[in-house]
Amino acid sequence: MKQIGLLSILSVILVLSCQSGPQPIEPVPVEPIAPVAEAVVEEDAPVAPVVFDPAAISADLYASTMAELRLFIETLNAIIRARNYTAWVSYLSESYYAQINSQEFLARRSEELFRRDQIVASNLGRDPRRVQKRVLRTSRDFFYNVVVPSRSNDRLDDISFVDENRVKAYTVDSRGNRLVLYDLKIIDNRWRIIN
What's the whole-model pTM score? Predict the structure, then answer.
């Protein structure tokens, strides 16, 4: 009996809900949307290259870079004085290491070394024609015969920024000439010799 009563009530509700039918939907006024202006990009438009301005380097950046590079060069001098070829190579960029291993580079440096040895012999009163030519065959030869005698006591006097990550390091000789010590660049968060 309870089932019949429940069914009767549900039937009445269902019949009443069907009689009312769907309610009409009132249209909602819609404001027209203004078209969005599309950005026109010319594909062939020249892009102005970003030009580095060395004058934009702050005094603080100059001072901190100078201090950092003084320590770098002091460490490098100690490595060179110790004749530690392996440690010295770790301060070179890959491209510079490849360059100093090229036969063309080594042949030029062999000639320069020979001329220098002849000048030294002449200055010491010896016959420059009797100087024996040393031939550099590897970067190791270059290190021991050129770098060790000439770079073990370098002094950093000045730097100039080439860009944000590249600096030329200078020393000033007794005549006041500014001489390039190293061309340095930050590679993998470390200063490296690139030339």
Answer: 0.69
